[in-house]
Design brief:
The complex is a heterodimer of chains A (309) and B (333). With 309 residues, chain A is an alpha/beta fold. Chain A is 34% helix and 14% strand. In chain A, the strands form 3 sheets. In chain A, strands 5-4-6-7 form a 4-stranded parallel β-sheet, sandwiched between helices. Chain A has a 4-stranded parallel β-sheet with strand order 9-8-10-11. In chain A, strands 1-2-3 form a 3-stranded antiparallel β-sheet, with helices on one face. Chain B has one domain: ABC transporter involved in vitamin B12 uptake, BtuC (Orthogonal Bundle). The chains are: A alpha/beta (309), B mainly alpha (333).
Chain lengths: 309, 333
């Protein structure tokens, strides 16, 4: 298992953080360090002041890396962590966003560091090095994801591009939702995060995307906020719930596929298995809240349409 | 023993009848009867309900029986062979070794489901073998204390490596933690058939040595005068307990406290002879883990609570109770 699945990691490491201030907004003070700089933005770790337009950004967040490139700040990115595998031209290093080493980061002489996990004392250490850190944890909603875009835009000097990207995402999501026949009431899904049946409820980021298409997670029965919205489900409950659709977000990490699901003891009785309503997703895209959410949403929408006749 | 057997049968029946799917007792009984050979009974319930009972719930209950009985019997055996009431089946590093094996399997692509049990089993066996080799060479202590100390060292080394591997693959923390905390969530008949031979062989060997453990209790010199070779007994018991424990944890993950709680509970309620403690621990261990697993799958249904958390939650307070009762009875542990 190799790939980042923020939902699960958040479950372990960031309990309680999701409810924190995930969005970012900025206030600018005209100055000579470049147009719009210095700028102070509000991130999950409080107010962060970036004195001048950053030219050596270190991103320890796979989602932030995608966002930075999407808003045209890719040329300013000096290094990204080992899970930032998209876009392919991002300067991947062996840095680990979950065990960030200030000294290893300092090697790249960053003038801005972006993280999605903020371990104790990391921020304080980076302050001693006078390196601004933007903490953008896993976004619980689309709104927070949009705020993170704007915050990164403000922080990197790409405000207009960030706003345009947010507008593009909103338009595309609206278009996808509008073009997809709303699922019939009672249409449910089981979203598999790993082969031990961790799943998502409708309260999570991905759950909210599915709600836009009229789908309801069977995991909601466990309590939408149980385990931060990522409960481990009982296998007999999954069979009993008999979800209309199964979405596999563990295809790369754990080699899950429609065939492996069908081969599980008892699972062949599920209607989703019998009617081939199992969609294999890309783990990375299905666990990040960046620009590729529209690809995910489009893939699910196309799948729903193909099964709605 | 009869009481323990009755309790086990009752617990298994209750646990098979209950589950998050909320099936009626008649449905469950009907499905079970439909699988009785020569009865030719046909259950009219839906295929999904049949799968829930036969493919999901029953193998989980049976696997809990096997794992629980092995951990309890292993714990009683280790306590006897090392004459240490704090000994548990993980004393010589089987948990640390299995943890490392499982972690390597999880972080290695393309191995999650296929090789995880085998890797955990191999890791456990390697760790205990290393402990025994190092401990045997390090000292000739007849009490086995050098082996126990070697076990502490080997466990520390394996745990350090496991932690480092885990930290280097932070994206895999969830499955690693899931395994370490123990779970029977994905139990199948394949798991049952996988560990059944090892658990059976281990149990037969350990039960056959229970009277020798009683002899060891009076002292090794005395045992030698009775013609018992303590080192040979220790090696055989440790090997058998390790084999069974490694097989158990390979499919269940690291479920703690069972190997301590159950033998002590048995000692508190019966006499202290290993001829009684070991078979009763075997049966009671099965009952304990089946009940704990029932709790794990029902308390937050349809969500799951890690089984290791449940056993530790019960085990912690119980352990304190054991310590207090022993102190008041003996003045010292």
């Amino acid at each position: 298992m190799k790939l980042l699945r923020p939902g699960l990691i958040v479950l372990l490491l960031l309990t309680g953080v999701l409810a924190g201030p995930g969005g970012a907004s900025a206030s600018r003070v005209p100055h000579a360090h470049g147009p719009g700089f210095p700028v102070t933005i509000k991130a999950a770790n409080g107010s962060v002041t970036i004195p001048s337009r950053p030219t050596s950004i270190v991103s320890l967040s796979a989602t932030a890396t995608e966002m930075l490139y999407a808003i045209g700040a890719g040329g300013q990115v000096r290094a990204v962590d080992k899970y930032s595998n998209y876009p392919p031209n991002a300067p991947m290093t062996n840095l680990n966003g979950f065990t960030p080493s200030p000294e290893a980061i300092a090697k790249y002489h960053p003038d801005l560091v972006v993280v999605s996990y903020d371990p104790a004392s990391f921020n304080a250490q980076m302050k001693k090095l006078k390196i601004p850190v933007i903490y953008d944890p896993a976004a619980p909603t689309l709104t927070v994801a949009y705020h993170q875009y704007i915050g990164l835009g403000e922080a990197t000097g790409h405000t207009a591009a960030a706003e345009a990207e947010v507008a593009r995402l909103k338009t595309r999501i609206a278009r996808i939702v509008k073009s997809t026949p709303h699922a019939a009431p009672g249409t449910t899904y089981y979203w598999e995060l790993d082969p031990t049946y961790y799943s998502v409820t409708s309260a999570t980021f991905m759950g909210q995307l599915m709600t836009l298409l009229g789908l309801k997670s069977i995991a909601d029965a466990a309590g939408v906020n149980t385990n931060g919205g990522y409960p481990q489900l009982n296998s007999e409950f999954i069979l009993k719930a008999n979800p209309t659709y199964i979405f596999l977000a563990d295809t790369k990490c754990c080699q899950a596929s429609p065939a492996t699901v069908a081969a599980r003891p008892g699972w062949s009785a599920l209607s989703a298995v019998a009617h081939h309503r199992i969609l294999a997703l890309n783990d990375d895209i299905a666990s990040r809240w960046g620009p590729r959410i529209v690809i995910l949403l489009q893939q699910v929408a196309n799948f729903l349409k193909s099964h709605q006749g | 023993m009869v009481v323990a057997g009755v309790v086990l049968v009752t617990v298994v029946l209750v646990s098979t009848a209950m589950g998050p799917a909320d099936l009626s007792l008649g449905t469950v009984v009907g499905v079970l009867l439909s699988h009785v050979p020569l009865l030719h009974y046909h259950s009219s319930t839906s295929p999904i309900n049949q799968a829930i009972v036969w493919e999901i719930r029953l193998p989980r209950v049976i696997l809990a029986c096997l794992v629980g009985s092995m951990l309890a019997l292993g714990g009683a055996s280790y306590q006897g062979v090392f004459r240490n009431p704090l000994a548990d089946p993980y004393l010589l590093g089987v948990a640390a070794g299995a943890g490392l094996g499982a972690t390597i399997a999880i972080v290695t692509p393309s191995t999650f489901s296929e090789l995880l049990p085998l890797a955990a089993f191999a890791g456990g066996v390697v760790a205990v073998t290393l402990t025994y080799v190092v401990g045997s060479k390090a000292g000739r202590s007849s009490s086995g204390s050098s082996i126990v100390l070697a076990g502490v060292a080997v466990a520390a080394i394996f745990t350090a490596i496991q932690t480092n591997v885990q930290q280097q693959h932070a994206a895999d923390l969830q499955p690693v933690y899931s395994w370490i905390l123990g779970s029977l969530t994905v139990a199948t008949w394949s798991d049952v058939t996988l560990i059944l031979p090892y658990v059976t062989l281990s149990a037969v060997v350990l039960l056959a040595h229970r009277h020798l453990l009683d002899i060891l209790r009076v002292g090794e010199e005395e045992a030698r005068t009775l013609g018992v070779n303590p080192n040979r007994v220790r090696l055989t018991v440790v090997a058998a307990a390790t084999l069974g424990t490694a097989a158990a944890v390979s499919v269940s993950g690291l479920i703690g406290f069972v190997g301590i709680i159950v033998p002590h509970l048995v000692r508190l309620t019966t006499n202290a002879s290993y001829r009684v403690v070991m078979p009763v621990s075997l049966v009671s261990g099965a009952s304990f883990l089946v009940l704990a697993d029932l709790f794990a799958r029902m308390v937050e249904a349809p969500g799951e609570v890690p089984l290791g958390v449940v056993t530790a939650f019960i085990g912690g307070p119980f352990f304190i109770l054991v310590l207090r009762s022993r102190r008041s009875a003996q003045g010292v542990l």
